[in-house]
TrEMBL record, chain A:
SUPFAM superfamilies named among the record's database cross-references: CO dehydrogenase molybdoprotein N-domain-like (SSF54665), Molybdenum cofactor-binding domain (SSF56003)
Similarity comment: family membership: Belongs to the xanthine dehydrogenase family.
Protein name, as recorded: Xanthine dehydrogenase molybdopterin binding subunit
Alphabetical UniProt keywords: 2Fe-2S, Iron, Iron-sulfur, Metal-binding, Oxidoreductase
Cofactors: Mo-molybdopterin; FAD; Mo-molybdopterin cytosine dinucleotide; [2Fe-2S] cluster
Gene: xdhB
Taxonomic classification: Bacteria, Bacillati, Actinomycetota, Actinomycetes, Propionibacteriales
UniProtKB/TrEMBL annotation, chain B:
Keyword Cell membrane: no
One example GO MF annotation: 2 iron, 2 sulfur cluster binding
FAD-binding PCMH-type domain segment(s): 199-372
Protein name: Xanthine dehydrogenase small subunit
Location of the 2Fe-2S ferredoxin-type domain: 4-87
Origin: domain of life: Bacteria
Pfam families: CO_deh_flav_C, FAD_binding_5, Fer2, Fer2_2
Length: 802, 484
């Protein structure tokens, strides 16, 4: 066991604590970026001029009329950029574009004394456009051969040969939608310039270091002239990993040019129409099974809808390809991945980061094929689980694969699944117009950034003379409870009460060169860095204390604010005394901590290596009830057992699991991004660009009964205090809801009905699915006795939308 | 008319430097009260929820949660507002704040002050926890807690982080207000009377007249006037579409528009009563409306929205018209020329147009009595609650000796206006209420209107839902018969 994962007795980690800002949240005292505007004098407000075309060339930009609007101070255009006119790291995202690449693309920004003045000024700007042909759907892009970035290829064994000899082969096509982040706090930045011309940007960003880099390159400054701070975010979910940079740069540019603070806060419509989303995907697949229902081969081509620029589309695709196996052993496999370039917002990170899209493919395959194989879907999934002697298609051993089985059997038992399945069968037989379904799905999710370099973190820990502790780290707080965990880690390592530890806001001038708070890695990376800094300090303090206590240095213990030798009966010094002594002896009381995840390697071209430190596991059982008249449904009960290692903070972790699950259910069943795909005047416009048209889960979508249990005895060797990451994996437990809907829809048809379900499975989609089942749709019925006949008669392609 | 002023968290503050359209949310935030947030600016997310002292039904005053992003601040002249900051401080939490904080009810915290206010309104609802008073009293089901907490109180608040379970648990753990709770005590004395208000700025004017006569005079002189009650639609136009009406007349507190009467031949519902008030005043006496209320937007919206507003905007997807059409309701229009009554079926003339003249106000809606015995409201939407309907159907039928004696069906979402399903009614009346007849009639219903495809639903789904709706109603009556 490494010392990183070793947990002392009386640890503060592991206690179920509320969010460290909970009291500030509930009273409205917690400050978010845009709340600072009321505390800042002479702020200018920014407003974009958004293009009404999906693709067009800007032929003329007349900004003069804006200056006739009272209160307009400045119009920012490409000519104002002293550095690089680019908002991304791939240099394919002009901040002020001359070519409009998506409907709503901002071509310039207006600064006004009030938001109203800026808005009216933006309306007064005159732009002439030369419309160009636009690709709006992923299918259009495929047909046109419009791709961007690298095309990757992942393979093991000989998929063709295995398919040729498989007992059953099925093929299909699947298109499924993206997802809007809909963090409650829209993108916001507030930029100021100090007396030396240095730029200070407060930004709602998951990646302050990269925001800093982009602001610097737009302004033509060095990084040390730009500081970015993030107090906290009102939700991020990946949507603030890459996307805030351009907005921060606009605000900073405005502040540099006017000398006044500039606030840029998108309203909801601007945020939805301009910022990137989860990638929608298209998948084409062939899957082979042996006579016992074991998957023997998979051949799949994944095409993501990347939108207009590359953004994070390449790593998202890599993660999708690395998660198409989910929890299942697939001996022979070939996966091709490519990124479509379309005239849409630039799709980006979103909780799961391609993992959900990869898993969607295999879970859809299993859900559709189970009836055709004549195998119960629960059994089909369990039968194909990884075992611990297996490796993934990219060559990583599946360590702790037995936890899949452990989670599964615990859900079966505590969820009373078999009895309920019998009850459901009885219910369905007695109710012609209402059917219930219960499904179980597993999750195996790799933790670490695929790009190895990102797996590093820094921290800065100060111990002041009075014994109080101030911690800084590179991670950002977006509601996931990272700061809560970090305070717990520091208190545990230093052996002081939590009340002695305060956490200061994330700033790039405290901890430099940080990675994004993303990939669920925030606690793993920053926690280890904080622990490292604290241990450096302890090592020095131990020498000070050893002298006074008359014990040898390795025997000094720091527990609950006291310092003593190994025996609890020995003399005790207070933490404060030791700190004071250390100061008087001129011992350094602060330290910079650092951490790099060991043992990772990844060849991104060969798609081979061990990109993940470990896998997080979980299993969910979901029960739904579907109304046969409308397709409307309720989520009756959900049982989850999830592996978070030894939890750092159980209340926080359970919150992440529940919230992730509901967000995943939203993606799969409710949230419906609709773009104008017609050839009309609004082609490429997002039709669902507000809260009234893009519906998030609300109270009515919460499971009526919701049991979440953390897997016990789940110590993770090699991670901070034996814990595991939790941010993303639970989102994918929501496949259980989609599969339960499939079960319920199938129950309207004859036994053995295979159901195709569009995604998201809105009531309309469920209605068409059950309507086809009810009609005993010829293609939905499969003769399971007909041996390899299904090879000649592949099931029809899955339709993208009902 | 004195300088407009508002009491916020106990402090009386003059309303200076505001425009006619300035929202309560922007005004609060500019004052440094940044607890309330803008999440959507259209009354969908509730992050801006604040409490307003309003006339009560069971007590003199009720703390009513509203969307601060929608209500013009000028409309709160003379009123009392409480925000999350006013309920408690981080060193001295309000019981609602305490429960949310310790149970993990906040993650990112951005929606939280809004949840706190919506939850506090339900915490202070008179009669919560006892049986009988309004919905929710005493019963425990998936939408009500053992403490009488009605979860619908939070239906207008969105949280993107928690998945809601801990928020529900916090709500269900709430006790009753303590004896020394100032906001609880405030309920026993009347709320501030509506002020007469006039705000003029940037060439626009916001006016709250003292009475109906003055209001009608203003309308007669200002045909361009925008009539505003709960502002649940007006506020969206202001925030999302930049609408800046030059002349706004607030009618939501006019006593003549707030009359309620259950007579022998009709129920009279004042046009400026909020949907929440109507729900509570009717107390189940119009079962069709009882079915409608929980499906009509959210509690936050129903606390502001009025029938007058819903009929005034004349949206083809408004939820009230299909129900009121089925109930054979009449609209009472009033002007300086006097009152006139129009059957709702004759009221709509086209997409968002009606027979109402610019100088007329909707005074009331009248529902004739006796009501049909078999009524239902079917709303089809993506989300179960707080969504806009793809299709809505209101039913009012009498089945006598197994034969349909009377049938009124109101439809929404299938044409440019709400409409009566006349062909379906004809296919039902005089026929036996049996599955064969209903199947035939359902086929007719599926062809009513001219549904279109949009982001909410496809045209074919909308048509299918019309037909399925009647089958569903029949299945319900068959089931009830079997049980009876």
């Amino acid at each position: 066991m490494s010392t990183l994962s070793e947990r002392p007795q009386h640890a503060v980690v592991g206690l179920p604590l509320p969010h460290e800002s909970a009291a500030l949240h509930v009273t409205g005292e917690a400050l978010y970026t845009d709340d600072l505007v009321a505390r800042t004098r002479d702020v200018l407000h920014a407003w974009p001029v958004q293009a009404p075309h999906a693709h067009a060339r800007v032929t003329v930009l007349r900004v003069a009329p804006a200056y006739d609007v009272p209160g307009v101070v400045r119009v920012l255009t490409a000519d104002d950029v002293p550095g690089v006119n680019d908002a991304g790291v791939k240099h394919d995202e002009p901040l002020f574009p001359s070519e409009v690449m998506f409907h709503g693309h901002a071509v310039c920004w207006v600064l006004g004394e009030t938001q109203e003045a800026a808005r009216l000024g933006a309306a007064a700007v005159e732009v002439d456009y030369e419309p160009l042909p636009a690709l709006v759907t992923v299918r259009e892009a495929i047909e046109a051969g419009s791709f961007q970035g690298a095309q990757r290829h992942l393979a093991r064994g000989d998929a063709d040969a295995a398919l040729a000899s498989a007992a059953h082969v099925f093929e299909g096509e699947l298109e499924f939608a993206g997802q809007e982040h809909f963090y409650l706090e829209t993108h916001a930045s507030l930029a100021l310039v100090d007396e030396a011309g240095q730029v200070f940007v407060q930004s709602s960003t998951q990646h302050p270091s990269e925001t800093q880099e982009i602001v610097a390159h737009v302004l033509g400054l060095a990084s040390h002239e730009v500081t970015v701070q993030c107090l906290r975010m009102g939700g991020g979910f990946g949507g603030k990993e890459m996307q805030p940079h351009g907005y921060a740069a606009i605000a900073a540019l405005g502040a540099r040019l006017t000398g006044r603070p500039v606030r840029l806060r998108l309203n909801r419509t601007q945020d939805i129409t301009m910022s990137g989303k989860r990638h929608g995907f298209h998948a084409r697949w062939r899957a082979g099974f042996d006579a016992d229902g074991h998957i023997v081969a998979l051949d799949a081509t994944l095409t993501s809808d990347g939108g207009w620029s590359l953004d994070l589309s390449e790593p998202v695709m890599a993660r999708a390809m690395c998660h198409i196996d989910n929890a299942y052993w697939i001996p022979d496999i070939r996966v091709d991945g490519r990124i479509a370039k379309t005239n849409k917002t630039s799709q980006t990170a979103f909780r799961g980061f391609g993992g959900p899209q990869g898993m969607m493919v295999i879970e859809d395959i299993l859900g559709r094929c189970a009836p055709m194989l004549g195998v119960d879907p629960l059994e089909l999934r369990r039968r194909n689980f990884y075992r611990s002697d297996h490796t993934t298609p990219y060559g990583q051993p599946v360590r702790h694969a037995e936890r899949l089985e452990a989670c599964w059997s615990q859900v079966l038992a505590t969820g009373d699944v078999e009895r309920r399945r019998t009850e459901i069968a009885r219910f369905n037989a007695a109710h012609p117009h209402v059917k219930r379904g219960l499904a179980m799905t597993p999750v195996k999710f790799g933790i670490s950034f695929n790009l190895t370099a990102f797996n590093q973190a820094g921290a800065l820990v100060h111990v002041y003379k009075d014994g109080s502790v101030l911690i800084n780290h590179g991670g950002t707080e977006m509601g996931q409870g990272l700061h809560t965990k970090m305070i717990q880690v520091a208190a545990t390592t230093l052996g002081v009460p939590m009340s002695r530890v305060r956490l200061a806001p994330t700033r790039t001038d405290k901890v430099p060169n940080t990675s994004a708070t993303a990939a669920s890695s925030g606690a793993d990376l920053n926690g280890a860095a904080i622990k490292n800094a604290c241990e450096q300090i302890l090592e020095r303090l131990a020498r000070v204390a050893a002298g006074r206590l008359g014990v040898s240095v390795p025997d000094v213990r720091f527990v609950d604010g006291a310092v003593r030798g190994l025996s609890a009966r020995d003399e005790r010094l207070s933490w404060e005394e030791v700190v004071h002594d250390a100061y008087m002896q001129r011992v350094q009381l602060w330290a910079a901590g650092f951490y790099r995840t060991e043992g990772l390697h990844w060849d991104s071209e060969a798609m081979y290596g061990e990109p993940f430190k470990y896998f997080a596991y979980g299993v969910a059982a979901a029960e739904v009830e579907v109304d046969g008249f409308t397709g409307a449904y309720t989520l009756r009960r959900v049982d989850i057992v999830h592996d978070v290692g030894d939890s750092l903070s159980p209340l926080v972790d359970i919150g992440q699991i529940e919230g992730g699950f509901v967000q995943g259910a939203g993606w799969l069943t409710l949230e419906d991004l609709r773009w104008d795909e017609s050839d009309g005047p609004h082609r490429g416009r997002l039709a669902t660009q507000s809260a009234s048209t893009y519906k998030l889960p609300s109270f009515s979508e919460m499971p009526e009964v919701f049991h979440v249990t953390l897997l016990e005895k789940a110590h993770e060797d090699g991670a901070v205090y034996g814990s595991k990451a939790v941010g993303e994996p639970p989102l994918m437990l929501a496949f259980s809801v989609r599969e339960a809907l499939r079960q319920a829809a199938a129950a309207f048809g004859p036994a053995g009905t295979s159901v195709q379900l569009a995604s998201p499975a809105t009531p309309e989609a469920v209605y068409w699915a059950l309507d086809r089942a009810r009609a005993g749709h010829a293609a939905a019925r499969v003769d399971v006795d007909g041996v390899p006949a299904d090879r000649e008669a592949p099931v029809p392609a899955v339709q993208g939308r009902g | 008319m004195s300088t407009p002023r508002i009491t916020v968290n106990g402090d009386e503050v003059p309303l200076t430097g505001i425009a006619a359209h300035t929202t309560t949310l922007d005004w609060l935030r500019d004052r440094g009260l940044t607890g309330a947030k803008e999440g959507c600016a259209e009354g969908e997310c509730g992050a801006c929820s604040v409490l307003v002292a309003r006339p009560g039904i069971d007590t003199a005053t009720e703390w009513t949660a509203v969307n601060a992003c929608l209500v013009p601040v000028a409309a709160l002249d003379g009123q009392e507002v409480v925000t999350a900051e006013g309920l408690g401080r981080s060193t001295d939490l309000h019981p609602v704040q305490q429960e949310l904080a310790v149970r993990g009810g906040s993650q990112c915290g951005y929606c939280t002050p809004g949840f706190v206010c919506s939850m506090a309104a339900e915490y202070y609802r008179p009669g919560r926890g006892s049986t009988g008073s309004g919905n929710g009293g005493g019963s425990t089901d998936h939408e009500h807690g053992p403490n009488g907490f009605d979860l619908h109180a939070l239906s207008g608040n969105l949280c993107r982080c928690t998945g809601y379970r801990p928020i529900r648990d916090a709500a269900y753990a709430l006790g009753l207000p303590a004896d020394d709770d100032g906001l609880a005590a405030r309920r026993t004395s009347p709320p501030p009377a509506p002020a007469t208000t006039r705000v003029v700025a940037d060439g626009a004017e916001f006016v709250r007249p003292a009475d109906l006569a003055e209001a009608l005079g203003l309308l007669a002189g200002h045909p361009e006037a925008e009539v505003v009650a709960g502002a649940t639609d007006y506020g969206v136009e202001v925030n999302l579409r930049g609408a800046r009406a030059p002349y706004v007349v607030a009618v939501d507190r006019l006593p003549e528009l707030r009359e309620f009467e259950v007579g022998d031949d009709a129920v009279h519902l004042g046009a400026a009563l909020t949907l929440t008030e109507i729900e509570r005043l009717l107390a189940g006496r119009v079962p069709l409306l009882d079915e409608l209320f929980p499906q009509f937007a959210s509690r936050l919206i129903r606390n502001g929205a009025t029938l007058g507003g819903n009929l005034g905007t004349a949206s083809p997807i408004g939820d009230a018209p299909p129900a009121l059409l089925a109930l054979d309701a009449e609209v009472v229009l009033t002007s300086q020329r006097g009152d006139r009554r129009v059957a709702l079926a004759d009221y709509f003339t086209g997409y968002r147009t009606t027979v109402r003249l610019p100088d007329e106000l909707i005074r009331a809606v009248r529902i004739p009595l006796p009501q049909a015995r078999l009524t239902a409201f079917h709303k089809i939407a993506k989300r179960r609650f707080d969504d806009i309907s793809s299709v809505a159907v209101g039913y009012a039928l009498d089945v006598v000796d197994g034969v349909v004696a009377r049938a009124s069906l109101g439809l929404g979402g299938v044409a440019a206006t709400p409409l009566r399903a006349l062909a379906t009614e004809e296919a039902l009346v005089g026929r036996p209420w049996t599955e064969p007849t209903v199947r035939e009639a359902a086929a007719v219903l599926a062809t009513e209107g001219t549904p279109m495809s949009d982001h909410r639903a496809s045209a074919s789904y909308r048509s299918a839902m019309l037909g399925q709706s009647l089958l569903r109603l029949h299945a319900r009556t068959a089931r009830e018969e079997a049980i009876a």
